[in-house]
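Researcher: Sequence recovery benchmark, item below. Answer with residues only.
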């Protein structure tokens, strides 16, 4: 027996493969490659194409490189946001275990947000 779909949202998604009847904002994204998890579209342009295909208007994300190198990952996030300010928002990554770097990273975030 086929389950009965009662939600207009689910019906639209199942029938069309996307959601266009309302705005979709993804508030938890990850950009960049990560050795432990396969991400098929890790670069900004590929992510934007996937967003377009799925009907996602905005993406808030952090860059995976910030897990090991804060400044590098945050810079890559900043560059992606600067290139696509109408589609991308970023999480600024900080590591509270390094308080000497924390102030510098927060100050840097303040310069480009």
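Model:
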């Amino acid at each position: 027996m086929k389950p009965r779909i009662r939600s207009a949202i689910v019906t639209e998604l199942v029938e069309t493969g996307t959601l266009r009847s309302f705005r979709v904002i993804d508030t938890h994204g990850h950009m960049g490659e990560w050795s432990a998890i396969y991400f098929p579209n890790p670069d900004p342009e590929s992510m934007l194409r996937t967003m377009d295909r799925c009907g996602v208007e905005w993406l808030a994300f952090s860059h995976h490189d910030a897990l090991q190198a804060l400044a590098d990952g945050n810079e890559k996030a900043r560059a992606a946001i600067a290139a696509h300010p109408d589609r991308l928002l970023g999480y600024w990554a900080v590591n509270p275990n390094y308080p000497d770097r924390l102030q510098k990273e927060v100050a840097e975030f303040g310069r480009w947000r």
